[in-house]
Structures are given as C-alpha cells and as structure tokens.
Write a structure and sequence with these properties.
This protein has helices at about 1-25, 60-75, 90-100, 115-125, 150-165, 180-200, 215-230, 240-255, 270-275, 290-305, 335-340, 350, and strands at about 45-55, 75-85, 105-110, 130-135, 145-150, 170-175, 200-210, 235, 285, 310-315, 320-325, 330. It is an alpha/beta fold and about 350 residues long. Helix 2 (about 60-75) crosses helix 10 and helix 7 (about 215-230) crosses helix 8. Helix 4 (about 115-125) links the parallel strand 3 and strand 4. Helices cover about 45% and strands about 20% of the residues. It has a 7-stranded mixed sheet with strand order 2-1-3-4-5-11-10, sandwiched between helices. A 3-stranded parallel sheet has the order 7-6-8, with helices on both faces. It has a two-stranded antiparallel ribbon with strand order 9-12.
C-alpha cells in the first residue's frame, strides 16, 4: 500500500542524492562493461583486496570500515581487514601480512603518513596497487588518493568561524601533527582567519596541535587558554568533533558552554547532539557512503587496469598523486534536519535526546 510507495520514494531520493554526490567526487562512475564475457568460462577467482586502518577508536573509522565491507560484499570482492590501533610499526607488519595473502589492491588509511611510504614500496614490489584512503601517504607513489577535499573542509570551518566571531581573542587548535589531513584542515581554515588576524580583529592567544586528536588533550589545552586569559576568549577553532567535545567540557566548567562559538568536523553523533543543545556551533559532514563507494569502484578499476577517471592531483612531497576528491558540507542548527535526518543519515531521536 501507501507505506511501501513512500519507502520506495525515500529510497529513490537517497539513491539520487548519492548519485549526485558521487558526481562531486571528481570521478564519474561508469557501469562496468564486462557483461558480455563468456558465461561458459570457469568461474573467476574473487578479487582479493586488503584493507589496513589506523584505528577503530573514532566513529568515522568505524563507520568507514563497515561501509567498505558492505560495498565490497555487494561487488563480490573478498576484503581482508586489519586494524593497527594507532601504531605505525604494527600497521606495516599487518600490511606485509595482507600482501602475503595474494591481494591485488591494498587500501591504506595510514596512521602515520610518512611511515606508510614503506608500505607502498613493499606493495609495488609485489605488483599490488595501493589506494591511499582519507589520509595522504607521503614521499611515495600510491596509485590513487581518495579523500574528501581537506583544504575545503578547513575553508568550511573558517567561513563559519569568521561569520560568527567578529573580533577578539581566539584559540586555534589543529589535529594530530603526524596526520597530513590536520595540516590541510588548518591551511583551509587559516585562509579564512588570517585576514582578520592580520587586520588585528583577532588576537591568537593559543595555537596548538592536539596529539592523536585526543579530546582529553584538547580539554587540557582549553583549560590552560581559559586560565591564562582569565576566560576572555571569543572563539575556538576546534579541528573535529572529538576535540570540540574536550574544549566544550573545559568551557562548561567555567559556565561558558554555548557562549563561545566553536567549530567541529565529522558529523559524529555526539557533535550533532551538542549542536542541537546549542553548545557546539557547527560540524563538517563528509558522506562516508560516497567515499567508500568511490574507493571500492577504484579498487575494481585498478585491478582491471582501467582508467580511474580522476582529474585531481595532490602533491605528497614526492609526486602529484592522482586523486579523487569528494566535497564536504557545513552542518549547523539551520540545516541539520534537512541534510542528516531527511537525508537518512541519522535518526531524529538519536540527535534530539529527550
């Protein structure tokens, strides 16, 4: 009856969204043209792909792992998965283990962008293609880099910040110093903040990186900034939702939560709950469904020696790496319902806790 039709329509709308979002990924998705293959041939071996992730301690890496697994299953790919728990040496050992299992493509979400160069080298020695996922592997020659446009993520944070903080003392935090994305997020944000720093509108009272993106570290830094400035702070650039959460705890202890504009990123549930509570200003949504679909598509094309249809490059210190870059979206109280709830990403009851 009607319910079915409505459900079908909403699924069609989500599908349309995903398709149009994919178009924002710098690579057109073309259907594969191997349907004409001889059906009498022996069944082909399943394509084997390795996946090495840095952690499962942050929601974004948990979500991406599940989506990559689902997408691989949909495409009939055998996905072998390893997680290193923020340890570069362990990640290298795990990748060597994956390479020994006859994979054709290795997807690497690097813990340490520099250290992971060795992984690319070892893979290529064995004729295995490498996808640098979400974090750029430096000083090496990965076959493709697939990520959201990380400078744009910072731009989006910076735009929101300058439109909500007119002048005054500001705190600028950036992510883990070993994570190349942290540099790019900061670069993008500073493109928007620097003019107001140069003009004297903003006085930077603290500028610090947050080790391992740890909320506890961000909280300590924020406490120090509040103490040193006798609570006289007008804005906080926090690089992601976890660090924003830590800062907000420090602000809350001084009764300042919700009084000082603060940024975030990743559209984590806790961050979204803080946005509707009014204590976190914004976050940046990177639709995991889009990037994970693009990644598995790229793995298939690499294995088949097909063109990836990518038109961007990002320099990693050694070369301009072929890149597929997806577009991020700013989320605040004005569009959270429309994009995340109507878009089927989150359930309203989860975000708006009673």
């Amino acid at each position: 009856g009607m319910k079915k039709v409505v459900k079908f329509i909403s699924q069609a709308v989500i599908l349309l969204m995903v398709v149009s979002l994919l178009a924002g990924c710098g690579a057109a998705s073309t259907p594969s043209s191997d349907d004409t293959s001889d059906q009498t041939a022996a069944p082909e071996e399943k394509l084997k792909v390795g996946l090495s992730f840095p952690t499962q301690r942050e929601e974004i890496w948990v979500k991406d792992k599940v989506l990559l697994e689902q997408e691989a299953e949909k495409q009939g790919i055998e996905l072998l998965v390893q997680v290193s728990d923020n340890d570069a040496a362990k990640q290298q050992a795990q990748c060597e283990n994956l390479l020994s299992q006859g994979i054709e493509v290795l997807i690497v979400g690097a813990h340490d962008g520099k250290a992971a160069a060795t992984i690319v080298e070892k893979a290529h020695e064995m004729g295995v293609k490498v996808i640098s996922f979400e974090r750029l592997i430096l000083d090496s020659d990965p076959d493709v880099y697939i990520s959201f446009d990380n400078v744009k993520v910072g731009n989006v944070q910076g735009d929101w910040f300058v439109s909500h903080v007119d002048k005054g003392n500001i705190v600028i935090l950036s992510g883990d110093p070993l994570d190349n994305n942290a540099k790019l997020f900061k670069q993008g944000a500073m493109e928007k903040l620097q003019p107001k720093i140069d003009s004297g509108d903003y006085t930077v009272v603290m500028e610090q990186a947050v080790k391992d993106w740890q909320p506890g570290e961000a909280m300590k830094l924020m406490e120090n900034a509040l103490t040193a400035n006798k609570n006289n702070i007008q804005g906080v650039l926090a690089p992601n939702d976890g660090t924003a959460g830590g800062c907000i705890q420090a602000l809350a202890a001084q009764g300042l939560d919700g009084k000082i504009p603060i940024t975030g990123q990743d559209a984590e549930l806790a961050g979204l709950q803080r946005i509707v509570e009014g204590v976190q200003g914004m976050t940046v949504f990177k639709d995991s469904r889009v990037i994970c679909k693009a990644t598995i598509e790229a793995a298939i094309k690499l294995a088949n020696g097909e063109d990836l249809g990518a038109n961007n490059t990002v320099n990693n210190g050694k070369m301009d790496v072929l890149s597929i870059l997806c577009t991020p979206t700013a989320i605040d109280e004005s569009n959270i319902d429309e994009i995340l709830i109507d878009g089927g990403v989150f359930v309203k009851e989860d975000i708006y806790k009673q």
